[in-house]
Amino acid sequence: MSGKDLKNIKALVIEDDEASQRLVTKYLNIIGITHIVAVQNGEEALQKLYLNTVNIIITDWCMPEMNGLDFFKEAKRQNLIEGIPVLMISAENEKEKVIEALKGGIRDYMVKPLELEPFKAKVSKLLKLE
C-alpha cells in the first residue's frame, strides 16, 4: 500500500499514559498513518466509535474507567468493531494474560516498551499492508 493510500487509514489509539500515547501516535505517523483519534480509556473509545469509523484500534490493557479488554468485549457486543483489527499493547507480559486477550478476540498483542520496527510490522500485518 502506498503512502497515498495510508492517508485514508484512520486509527483509534486508547492509552491513558500520555507518553505512551504520544509514542504510538509518533510511530503511526512514521508509518504514514496521520488520521488518529486518541483517547484515555475504553469509555471514551466507545463514544468515539459511535461517531467515527476506524480501520485499526490500538489499545492499552490497564486503564482507568474501562480497561482495554473490557472495551474490546463491549465494543464487540455492540457491533462497533466488526472487521476492525485490534492490537493490544501492555506492560502485562504474563503468558496467561496474553492468552486471555487473544482468546477474547484481540487480533495481536505487544508488550511494552514498544519499538518501532516490531510495531510497524504488526500494524502492517493487521492492515494487510505487506
UniProtKB/TrEMBL annotation:
Modified sites of kind 4-aspartylphosphate: 60
GO biological process, one term: phosphorelay signal transduction system
Pfam families on file: Response_reg
InterPro entries: Bact_response_regulator, CheY-like_superfamily, Sig_transdc_resp-reg_receiver
UniProt keyword Phosphoprotein present: yes
Domain Response regulatory residues, every copy: 10-127
Keywords: Phosphoprotein
Gene3D superfamilies, alphabetized: 3.40.50.2300
Record's keyword annotation contains Phosphoprotein: yes
Protein name, as recorded: Response regulator
Species, as recorded: Candidatus Nitrohelix vancouverensis
